[in-house]
Amino acid sequence: MTTRALIRPPAVWADGTRAAAGVVVLAVAGVAVGWLAADPLNLRLALAAALAALAVGAAAVSPNALLVGVVVWLSALGTLRRVVTGVAGDSSYDLLLLVGPFVLALLVAVAVSRGGFAARGALANAVLALAVLSLAGAVNPLQGSLAAGVAGLLFVFVPMLGFWIGRGLCTDRTLRLVLLLVAALGIPAALYGLAQAFLGFPAWDTAWIEKVGADYLGLLVGTAVRPFSSFSSAAEYAVFVALALVVWVAFGFRSLRIPFVIAPIGLLVTALFVSSTRGAVVAAAAALSLMACASRRLPILPALALSAVLLVGLSVGAQRIGTPDSTGAASTLLSHQIEGLADPLDPAALNLGVHLSLIESGLRSAIDDPFGVGIGSVNLAAVKFGGEIRSTEADPSNIAVALGIPGLVAYLLIVVLGFRKAYELARRRRDALSLAVLGVLAVTVLQWLNGGHYAVAVLPWLVLGWVDRSSARRR
Question: Does the model's pTM come out above 0.70?
Answer without folding.
Answer: yes
